[in-house]
Amino acid sequence: MTTPTITLSGVTHRYSHAPVLDVESLMTGGGATAILGPNGSGKSTLLRLLATLLATQSGSIRFDGLDPSVPIERTAIRRRLGYVAQNDGLPDRMRVAEYCDYIAALKEIGPDRLRRRWTAWVLDRVGLGDMSGRRIRTLSGGMKRRLSMAQALLGGPDLLVLDEPLASLDAEQRAEITGLIARTANDANIVVATHHADELASVCAQVVVLDHGRAVFSGPPADLATRATGQVWEATKPAAGASCRAVGPGRFHCVGGSPPPGAEPAKPTVADGYLVLVKHH
Amino acid sequence: MTSVHDLEAALGRAGGHPRFMAGTAGESVDRGRLAANLAAIDAEIDAPLPSLLARLLKRLGVGDRVIPLVTATPALRRSWIAAVVVALLFALNAASGSPGEGTGRIVVFLTIAPLIPLLGVALAFGPAVDPTHEVAVAAPMDGFRLFLVRSITVFSAGAAMLLLGSLLVPAGGVARIGWLLPALATTAVTMAVSTRFDPRLAAGGVGSAWIVLVVVVSQAADPAAMFGPVTQVVSVAIAVGGSVAFVRQRRHLDELSVPGPR
Amino acid sequence: MTLVSDARVPTGIEDVDLVRMIGAGDRDALSGLYRRHAGWLTARLERRCGDPDMVDTALQDTFLAVWQQAGGYRPVGEVGAWLWTIALRRLIDQLRRRPPPEDVEPMAEVISVEIPLALGHTEMGAAFASLQPALQAVMACTALDGLTNSDTAALLGLPVGTVKSRLSRAREILKEALR
Fold first, then answer.
1. Which of A251, B24, B42, C94, by CA, is between 20 and 30 Å from A221?
2. Interface of C with B in 110-169 (CB under 8 A)
3. How far is the alpha carbon of B186 from chain A, nearest alpha carbon, in Å?
4. What are the start and end residues of each CATH 1.10.1740.10 domain in chain C?
5. Which structural domain range is residue A30 located in?
6. Distance from CA of B144 to the nearest CA of A (A)
């Protein structure tokens, strides 16, 4: 398996003088990388830099040695890139197959017969094989997200940049997309921004936590989980000062705070480690 | 005793037995290739029928790599309908008036007509009107090429309708198509400005400037003179200048110009 | 010979029946027919055209045509011969749109593989072998594949006039040789 490696060094980015990203050094490759971080932590900016949509203001990014600030090399990177934007970016009036054909044409796949083959292949891959004639506006939210994934897979990219592919989906749909990411991780280097740490961490080899534009953690998911060791407990009710979530009827999984009487220590998850880390900063 | 005819007949008979011919040759064709071709056949059979527009373009000889870019143009229908409406209104209006008062009406038409392709360009490209914009920028195809294809598309769709409308009326002579070169000029400038600004903003600015210009000139001189030879020549010059600026600024179309983080 | 076995179509079924089933809209039958015939069709098309993309497209076009035309198929002669006629037709359609790459090698293969199979070590085979390659190629197209002069011209990338003159020269030489 040889998927491209991406290296960032000294990358900073500002919008009208407000710094949003300041990443000392970062490397991805050899499996999927999850980017975690609160809203406004610079996730989308980082992803857009990785998708070559924004020019680097300072520092450097290299994709297998290719420099996105050189137009020819940027095009070469884009030939190997699949991108899922945060808002899906689907034109409601188009038909599913027509949309794939259009994106395939933008990816310079031709002639038309080859595009139709790619379209059939990617739609099959995401389980939309029967939907090719449907108008996009008639698809459910989960189907739209799968279509978004399908367009990213056109042309067989070896680098996938996915901006919040699990956002606003229900648990079942999230599992579908996560499964798709896991299956694709063998053929491509995937960078995926998400709020669903636990679900995606299971399929990612690396996790990066962004906070206020800085990469405050970078390593295997298990290492992130250990950051919460000794601070995770489960009880029948949540407690003040702790981040709690319901994990069953009358059962709460909490991080931090002071455990109430009767609370039992629990095994920390990646999401727990993330919460501890972000709170700490 | 054999003849050439016998020889050709023998060859002909053999040609009709393809399995004998190929089977004994003992070649084997790569299985992956055969499977890929079968997948292609399946995809062809399963593909939905292309849209009417796509089939029409194919008939007209438009390249198959360009057709999807044309058919995916946002607001293509809207700008086309706007052109039809303006052209029809002009045709009806001109047909109903008496020959003497035709000039004023033609000037109004000549002023409005160039705005139609501008409207098309404004609604055909950019993050504000095209939900696929971000994905399109991340694709290897030049933003320049995409914008150009779409602008040509909306321009030709609009101009064709306007041309038809203006040729339908008997009045006005050659002056009826006096809008065409100004339309080219304003569109070229809009495209150049759109490399740095939202195309809607660019079209709005250029369109307003055009109307102000026509009004000012009309106050000072005969309105019909506005569309005389001088304007036509100047239009060509502006169209060329706009196109050059557009080509020179093309690199800006390959990046996202988002104002701030979301 | 690439004969990929297909679980969905039993080997006992005749080609003609497969075509009838395709005519009734049976996709499995289409894959079945493809698996039986695609291998040799590809190999044989490659002897006529050196561009693998063109060959692949012609092959795809062939089975797409079969899918559309199978309903009206009248069984005269072998299904294989019918397929070959379509395939060659599709290849030439493409060559008419886009000239072939400057490459006469493929026809040389026809001459070295198919002609000996058709004529054997006979007086006719010897006579044919006495022709120069350019004349053999024209002869193979018209006699073996039954192509018209204009189709031969498209396949070989020659003007029709050249095909005609080479053909009559070939016939004269053969007449001499067979006397």
1. A251
2. 113-115, 117-119, 123-124, 127-128, 139-140, 142-146
3. 27
4. 1-102
5. 1-80+157-218
6. 12
- CA–chain centroid gap for B57, Å, is 11
Structure tokens at C52: 């693998």
Phi and psi at C86, nearest 5°, equal -65, -45
C10 touches chain B (CB under 8 A): no
Instruction: State the amino acid at position C15 in one-letter form.
Output: D
Distance between CA atoms of A93 and A85, rounded to whole angstroms? 19
Q: Which residue has the higher pLDDT, B172 or A178?
A: A178
Q: Which of A87, A97, A110 sits opposite B47 (nearest CB)?
A: A97
Mind listing the pLDDT tens digit for each residue in A53-62?
A: 999 898 999 9
Q: Tell me the pTM.
A: 0.85
- Residue that is written with structure tokens 């600030």 in the block: A69
Cis peptide before A111 (omega within 30 of 0): yes
CATH of C1-102, one of 3.50.50.60, 1.10.10.60, 1.10.1740.10, 2.40.30.10: 1.10.1740.10
CB A123 within 8 A of CB A129: yes
ipTM exceeding the 0.85 mark? yes
Q: How many domains does chain A have?
A: 3
Query: B154 CA to chain C: closest CA distance, Å?
Result: 30
Q: What is the DSSP letter of A229?
A: T
Neighbours of chain B (3+ CB pairs under 8 A): A, C
Class for the domain spanning C104-179: mainly alpha
In chain A, which among 144-173 make CB contacts under 8 A with chain B? 151, 161
Round to whole Å and give the CA distance between C25 and C30: 9
